[in-house]
Specification:
Layout (H helix, E strand, L loop, with lengths): L5 H33 L2 H47 L17 H43 L2 E6 L5 E4 L1 H8 L16 H14 L3 E6 L6 E8 L5 E6 L14 E2 L21 E9 L9 E10 L2 E11 L8 H7 L3 H4 L5 H11 L4 E4 L2 H10 L1 H4 L7 E3 H9 L7 H7 L12 H21 L5 H8 L4 H6 L1
Parallel strand pairs: 7-10, 10-11
Antiparallel strand pairs: 1-2, 1-5, 2-6, 3-4, 4-5, 7-8, 8-9
Length: 468
């Protein structure tokens, strides 16, 4: 029957309803007639009505199941695959087998998405030379900046970091993990930064100031140089910072951050402009109320892209032996966590890393339950907005699909190296790549703001209850 057209197949559904309905009515009347002869006419008609009602309910349920399995689910799956190819850039072909009862719809969808992919490849080839030239220029700029014994940061009008070079990363790391879009006050004494900015604005030219680190232990000679748009360059004498010649010294930047002006209402913020902290944990077991974290991995996504180098890969001493069964999964041993920070220090570090961002995880309630349990020991409040990629998967691919991280990676052409699977950082990185591919798919569905995405995910909250 897979050769039948979609219109004929839907016509047969209605034929089944009509023929089945006629058969049920005739059967009910026949049984009712026999009962009326044996008892009373009223008794026979009532019994026939009850029998027909149950028959109609069973018929409609059966036809609905057939329609759902052979038409509704394949259409939902087909549309999700088309969006993945169109908006997430995946190279997987449309699964025509699952949509074999939809007539020519699946082959037509595969043809149009293949054509789009070929056009995308052609466009990519045309801009490849320009991209290579820009990459070469960036490499030259990076090399130039990292050879000069100063640390360079570009700060926007809201005192948030827009650019930092290799030396600046070393300076920032003395206080906390370097982060694009992070407030400068997360690394340096806020009063000193405010006084230097005030002096710079008053003078209208460069000013030099001694700047203290947030921990009060470090001091830096800094020069503040105003730039157009209200921000400034901050140049720190970094001659005392020793970076090995072979060390990676990237230039990390996002000039779109120069356009930011104050904090807007989160619900109205475009999802592509949000800052995300994507994390995962490995634990001693699967019970958040009694097990402990042994590893935290996290990466940052700013303006829809993963920021290289902005990561946390932290082993955590759980204060108890790690069961062999758990070690077999995540490969974290008692020897590896010996001497590592406990959950109080590790949790505070991650809390600072995730400040002013949306926290993202795959099955977030599980991982967040461990952090919430120890918030008193950490001395922090976990009040970050949270997104769950399980629910985003349900929104985009339908609740009836499988929503494991492996399944989601397979749909979106995300590869998890075997050595990194079931490590906190490896799974966090995979979740971040999945998120980056899903953001344009959500926007294509009309879910362009954080509030709209959250409202849609709440419709699938039952999935998380079943998982946990």
């Amino acid at each position: 029957m897979s050769k039948l057209s979609l219109r004929l197949r839907i016509f047969l559904f209605f034929c089944l309803l009509a023929l089945g309905g006629v058969g049920i009515v005739l059967g009910a009347l026949w049984v009712g007639h026999a009962r009326a002869i044996a008892t009373t006419p009223a008794n026979g008609f009532v019994f026939a009505g009850i029998l027909a009602s149950f028959g109609f309910a069973a018929l409609c349920t059966g036809v609905w199941l057939l329609f759902d399995e052979n038409v509704a689910k394949p259409i939902e799956r087909l549309s999700a695959q088309m969006r993945a190819r169109a908006h997430a850039g995946t190279g997987s072909t449309v699964d025509t087998g699952s949509a074999r009862y939809l007539g020519d719809l699946a082959p037509a969808a595969d043809a149009i998405t293949s054509a789009l992919s070929q056009n995308a490849v052609s466009t990519a080839e045309r801009i490849a030379s320009s991209t290579a030239r820009l990459a070469a220029e960036k490499a030259q700029l990076t090399a130039l900046l990292t050879e000069i014994p100063v640390a360079t940061l570009l700060i926007n009008a809201d005192d948030q970091i827009v650019l930092y070079d290799g030396q600046a990363a070393e300076v920032l790391a003395q206080q906390a993990v370097p982060r694009l879009n992070a407030p400068l006050a997360d690394y340096f004494d806020p009063a000193g930064v405010k006084a230097a900015r005030k002096a710079m604005n008053k003078a209208g030219k460069d000013v030099s100031r001694a700047l203290h680190g947030l921990d009060g232990k470090q001091s830096y000679d800094a020069r503040f140089k105003p730039v157009e748009g209200g921000g400034f360059m901050m140049i720190i004498d970094a001659a005392h910072i020793e970076i090995p010649p072979e060390a990676a010294r990237p230039l990390v930047y996002d000039f779109d951050l120069m356009e930011r002006r104050g904090a807007s209402n989160l619900d109205e913020t475009p999802i592509g402009k949000l800052t995300f902290t994507v994390f995962d944990t490995e634990t001693t077991g699967l019970l958040p109320h009694k097990d402990e974290i042994v590893q935290i991995g996290a990466v940052r996504v700013v303006n829809g892209r993963i920021i290289p180098g902005e990561v946390i890969d932290q082993l955590v001493d759980p204060g108890r032996p790690i069961p062999p069964a758990s070690t077999k999964v995540h490969k974290v041993t008692d020897a590896m966590v010996a001497g590592q920070p406990g959950i109080a220090r590790a949790g505070r570090k991650f809390h600072g890393f995730a400040r002013d961002s949306v926290i993202v995880a795959h099955n977030a309630p599980f991982d967040m339950a461990f952090l919430q349990r120890h918030k008193g020991r950490m001395g922090v409040v976990w009040d970050h907005p949270i997104l769950d990629t399980v629910l985003l998967s349900a929104v985009l691919f339908g609740a009836s699909e499988t929503h494991t991280l492996d399944a989601l990676c397979a749909r979106l052409d995300v590869t998890i190296p075997e050595a990194l699977r079931h490590t906190a950082l490896g799974d966090a990185r995979a979740t971040a790549e999945v998120l980056v591919r899903m953001l344009p798919m959500l926007e294509a569905r009309g879910l362009t703001t954080f509030g709209a995405v959250i409202a849609e995910t709440r419709r699938h909250g039952r999935l998380l209850e079943d998982l946990n």
